[in-house]
Specification:
Length: 495
């Protein structure tokens, strides 16, 4: 383990871009979200917005990642620490604006020389190869600033890239400060930049707050750098999704859909059948083997893994599950469950945390399982609740099996051995053990342990009280039917 940690450390050292730093802006409140949760902690594809941005930043292997926080700083800093433990967290003061955010981040780069990538914590779909290409273009031109732009059908809300007649970038103007003519420009600022660090140091100090929002705009660096004769460039993003900024919940859903489309497509090209990408949702940390089939209405979330040839759906949610090769999971809701190879689950099953089904096992219709293991080849096919239970191999529980695990004081375990067959509609009152090969009668309430090989019966033998209905319910339809049946019977007997 030490050896492999050393190897991966050495690899990372070798590949580190020592003249590159990344600043991730995550201090804003995100007012337009109208949310108690800070904007950059909202999630798409199973990961926070800032988590996506940090993953992109790390892929460049920069010498340093600096993040800027302020609104709900502890919550945001905790998420940053989880997603990027090596990132430096800097606090923005009460001077607002993206320019001020970068200015305070520079304090953590006092000894750094090189290029600085600035990313917005609310632009989650930017991919690392797009960003790497931006850095390469910036370095090739020896530019002072290179900004990523995009051509959007609806540019509303974004800063616009203003160019002169020969196409050179003049400045960026915010929507709120723009003239009507400027608002007509379709090329927007994606909020993704590469700067020479000295350009940032010099020009951020020159920026004021004399604008519609009373903020220090990072975007003002562009005009200042140009005025100082530094080469300034704008590179149009290869796809518009890369530039999608999340400011409200409409954009959040748009970003979620675009990310999901990308994830689905990647798995399709890797050999996964997804019949309906629009209704199939796959988190970014999910792993799918070749020849998995995902049917419409299926969500595969939270680091779920699915083995080769398994079929999931329709209308199924898997959260943090492990599904074996060749398994079938139909119309099921499962969270932190393990489903063995070639097992079948559903339709209409509910697997709660700790449910574990062995290979070729079956959990059938209207069955709820929690914190229980069901051995290989074992079946719980219909209308059952199985909780805090261990079931051996090749067991068959009849329809309507209930493990009564809770006596309103504590939870208790039910242990069922191998090759047990239970009758329909049994209640297993825990704590209770059923030995290997035992059988139980229909309707049994099992309160005591059943030895291996025994037949357990708890329902009293049936006793028929002849003539009860005609005697006690005279004149009812039932009594008349009974009388008719009796006379037919007599006639038949007489014949
Ligand atoms: C910003 C750009 C705009 C661009 C758009 C792209 C500026 C002035 N405008 O506008 O040109 O088209 O992004 O998505 O930069 N933040 C801080 N501290 C602050 C303010 C913001 O860290 O004081 C962070 C936010 O958390 C967010 C990012 O910076 O992650 C962008 O801030 P936001 O207020 O969303 O800027 P936009 O109005 O979208
Ligand atoms: Ca924004």
């Amino acid at each position: 383990a030490v050896r492999s940690r050393f190897e991966s450390w050495r690899r990372s050292m070798v590949n580190t871009d020592t003249s590159l730093a990344v600043i991730v802006l995550a201090a804003g409140q995100g007012t337009r979200m109208r949310s108690a949760t800070p904007k950059v902690l909202h999630r798409i594809g199973g990961r926070s917005l800032v988590g996506h941005v940090l993953a992109t930043a790390q892929a460049l292997q920069p010498a340093r990642v600096v993040t800027v926080v302020r609104h709900e700083r502890d919550l945001v800093a905790a998420e940053i620490a989880e997603q990027a433990p090596d990132a430096i967290v800097v606090d923005q003061d009460d001077v607002p604006g993206t320019g001020r955010a970068v200015e305070v981040a520079l304090e953590a780069l006092a000894d750094f020389d090189g290029d600085v990538v600035v990313l917005s914590g609310d632009v989650p779909l930017l991919q690392s190869d797009t960003l790497a290409a931006l850095v390469a273009a910036h370095r090739e031109r020896a530019a002072g600033v290179t900004v990523m732009s995009a051509l959007l059908d609806d540019a509303t809300g974004y800063g616009r890239v203003i160019r002169d007649a020969s196409g050179d970038v003049l400045r960026i103007v915010e929507q709120k400060d723009a003239s009507d003519a400027e608002r007509g420009v379709g090329e927007i600022n994606a909020g993704v930049y590469v700067f020479r660090i000295d350009a940032l140091r010099v020009h951020l100090a020159e920026i004021g707050t004399d604008n519609a929002q009373g903020e220090k705009y990072l975007t003002d660096v562009i005009a200042l750098a140009r005025a100082a004769q530094r080469p300034v460039g704008a590179a149009v993003a290869p796809d518009t999704a890369a530039a999608l900024g999340v400011n409200d919940r409409v954009q959040l859903s748009e970003a979620a859909r675009a990310l999901n489309a990308r994830t689905v497509r990647r798995w399709q090209l890797d050999g996964v059948t997804v019949l309906d990408p629009a209704t199939t949702w796959i988190d970014v940390d999910v792993t799918l083997a070749p020849d998995v089939t995902l049917l419409p209405g299926t969500q595969v979330l939270r680091a779920t893994t699915v083995g080769e040839g398994a079929t999931i759906g329709p209308d199924t949610s898997l959260v943090g599950c492990e599904v074996g090769a060749g398994a079938t999971v139909t119309r099921t809701d499962a969270t932190f469950a393990i489903i063995g190879e070639r097992a079948t689950v559903g339709p209409f099953a509910y697997l709660r945390p700790g449910a574990e089904l062995g290979r070729s096992g079956k959990i059938g219709t209207f069955v709820e399982v929690k914190n229980s293991t069901i051995g290989s080849g074992s079946k719980v096919p219909h209308l059952s609740y199985i909780g805090d239970t261990e079931i051996g191999d090749r067991v068959n529980l009849g329809a309507g099996a209930i493990t009564a695990n809770y006596d309103d004081l504590a939870k208790h375990r039910t242990v069922i051995g191998d090759d047990v067959h239970s009758g329909s509609h049994n209640v297993f009152v825990a704590p209770v053990r059923i030995g290997d090969g035992a059988k139980t009668g229909a309707g049994a309430v099992i309160r005591k342990d059943v030895p291996s090989g025994a037949l357990a019966l708890s329902v009293a033998p049936q006793r028929n009280v002849e003539g009860w209905v005609e005697k006690n319910r005279a004149g009812t339809a039932a009594a008349e039917a009974a009388a008719r049946s009796r006379s037919t019977q007599k006639a038949d007997d007489g014949a």
